[in-house]
């Protein structure tokens, strides 16, 4: 069932994931998460239930560190609204996300176009088969080098439903700190006898309710539309004819506005971000952007240049060669338009 041999291409994987997910009515199980950083491993155990497209609930039953969620904290998402109950504070925090957002190959509902985009931004390899929670899985590795932090993800996806039952992610920040997160189902059941009406968040009547205002986001299909919407000037990098504009994104939260333009060629991706947030110190190898001080960071095949101009923070980077990134940064830093 599914792909048994060979190296599946991103489009095939995306199609399999979307097609098989259409046959998932519900998922119930116990999930373990282990995070290793600086020689320390923190383990969290969560009981979860999900009816895709309708409702999901998670309850932390064991936790070694409150930073990753305290024991007893319960989270329920329905109709794009997430409510989290913390029994320690007797507080419910409400997050209005607007809609259920897919989260790619590492979990949750997915959209074929989005997952194919994620896969196309990665080096994908098919590693064969294995078993997780007494179910047969396909093993797929994704190396993402066009982003900071760079990462390697190994996903163990169920052979029947192409739902991830185990993920292993290792990423390294520009300062060299490595973090590994392993998440896997200890037990899992698909399409059990569960009704959406039965999935509720049990909250005491005297609990305090707080609202969390998340970021406002918008996607643009053209660079011109993004630049027109931005409250500050955003230049156009010199990237050559082989690059084309792929997409633009806006994110605004608590007075901070950030705009990202993504450009792609046949085998590389470059992202240019401009933000009015500049309250953290720039770091990296010093580079001269024709009179503007820049900072270069490299890891693996990814190169990023950062600089500040007129109190705005600029970042451009991707898996193109160093010369391409530095040249693009130099033209942007000296763009008077």
From TrEMBL:
Keywords assigned: Lipoprotein
Biased composition (Basic and acidic residues): 17-26
Start and end residues of each stretch annotated as Disordered: 1-26
InterPro entries registered for this protein in UniProt: LolA/LolB/LppX (IPR029046), Sporulation_related (IPR052944)
Gene3D superfamilies to which the protein is assigned, alphabetical: Lipoprotein localisation LolA/LolB/LppX
SUPFAM superfamilies documented for this protein: Prokaryotic lipoproteins and lipoprotein localization factors (SSF89392)
Membrane-spanning parts: none
Source superkingdom: Archaea
Name the UniProt record assigns to this protein: Outer membrane lipoprotein carrier protein LolA
């Amino acid at each position: 069932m599914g792909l048994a041999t060979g190296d599946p291409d991103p489009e095939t994987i995306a199609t399999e994931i979307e097609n098989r997910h259409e046959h998932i009515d519900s998922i119930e199980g116990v999930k373990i998460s282990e995070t290793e950083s600086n020689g320390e491993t923190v383990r969290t155990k969560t009981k979860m239930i999900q009816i895709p497209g309708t409702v999901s609930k998670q309850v932390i039953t064991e936790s070694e560190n409150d930073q990753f969620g305290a024991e007893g904290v319960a989270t329920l998402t329905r109709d794009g609204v997430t409510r989290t109950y913390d029994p320690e504070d007797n507080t419910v925090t409400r997050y209005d996300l607007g809609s259920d957002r897919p989260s790619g190959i590492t979990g949750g509902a997915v959209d074929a176009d989005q997952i194919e985009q994620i896969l196309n931004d990665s080096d994908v390899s098919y590693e064969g088969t294995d078993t997780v929670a007494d179910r047969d899985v396909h093993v797929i590795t994704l190396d993402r080098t066009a982003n900071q932090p760079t990462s390697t993800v190994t996903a163990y996806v169920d052979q029947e439903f192409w739902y991830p039952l185990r993920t292993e992610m290792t990423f390294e920040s520009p300062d060299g700190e490595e973090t590994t997160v392993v998440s896997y189902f200890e037990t899992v059941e698909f399409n059990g006898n569960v009704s959406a009406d039965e999935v509720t968040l049990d909250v005491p009547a005297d609990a305090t309710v707080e609202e969390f205002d998340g970021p406002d986001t918008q996607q643009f299909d053209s660079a011109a539309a993004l630049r027109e919407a931005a409250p500050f000037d955003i230049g156009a990098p010199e990237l050559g004819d082989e690059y084309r504009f792929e997409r633009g994104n806006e994110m605004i939260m608590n007075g901070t506005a950030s705009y990202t333009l993504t450009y792609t060629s046949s085998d590389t991706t470059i992202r240019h971000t401009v933000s009015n947030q500049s309250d953290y110190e720039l770091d990296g190898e010093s580079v001269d952007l024709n009179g503007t001080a820049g900072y270069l960071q490299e890891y693996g095949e990814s190169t990023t240049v950062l600089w500040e101009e007129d109190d705005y923070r600029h970042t451009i980077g991707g898996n193109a060669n160093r010369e391409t990134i530095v040249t693009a940064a130099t033209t942007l830093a000296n763009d008077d338009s």
